[in-house]
């Protein structure tokens, strides 16, 4: 099932909480805050956020994440807050946040 957003270049905040999502693919260049709390995501693939260059806040709490690939956050140079609590993560790639100079909060 796909979602259609009119004027997608104007969207700054998007709440996709508790929608039973198993994957995401977004192209919202002005998006600053994305909440995907309480879904069924298990894996974040490289470059999945390549179009979200303005993103500052990303909430993945209460998903089923077990794997985050190395280059997932590479395009997110403006990311300041990342929430990953209550997932199935046991380890993260050592250089996952190498381009995340503005990142202040990781939970």
Quick rundown:
By secondary structure, the protein is mainly beta. The chain contains no helices and 7 strands.
Number of helical elements? 0
Q: Average pLDDT value?
A: 90
Total strands: the figure is 7
Envelope shape: globular
- What would you report as the Rg, rounded to the nearest angstrom? 13 Å
Explain the overall architecture:
This protein is an all-beta fold and 107 residues long. Strands 1-2-4-6-7 form a five-stranded parallel beta sheet, with no helix packed on it. A two-stranded parallel ribbon has the order 3-5. The mean pLDDT is 90.
Main features:
single chain, 107 residues, mainly beta, five-stranded parallel β-sheet, two-stranded parallel sheet
Give the secondary structure arrangement, pairings included.
Layout: E1 13-15, E2 33-35, E3 43-44, E4 57-59, E5 67-68, E6 81-83, E7 105-106
Parallel strand pairs: 1-2, 2-4, 3-5, 4-6, 6-7
């Amino acid at each position: 099932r796909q979602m259609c957003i009119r004027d997608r270049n104007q969207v700054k905040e998007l709440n996709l909480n508790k929608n039973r999502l198993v994957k995401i693919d977004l192209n919202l260049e002005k998006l600053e805050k994305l909440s995907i709390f309480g879904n069924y995501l298990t894996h974040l693939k490289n470059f999945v956020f390549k179009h979200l260059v303005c993103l500052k806040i990303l909430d993945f709490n209460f998903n089923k994440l077990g794997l985050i690939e190395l280059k997932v956050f590479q395009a997110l140079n403006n990311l300041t807050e990342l929430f990953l609590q209550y997932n199935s993560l046991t380890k993260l790639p050592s250089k996952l946040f190498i381009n995340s100079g503005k990142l202040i909060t990781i939970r």
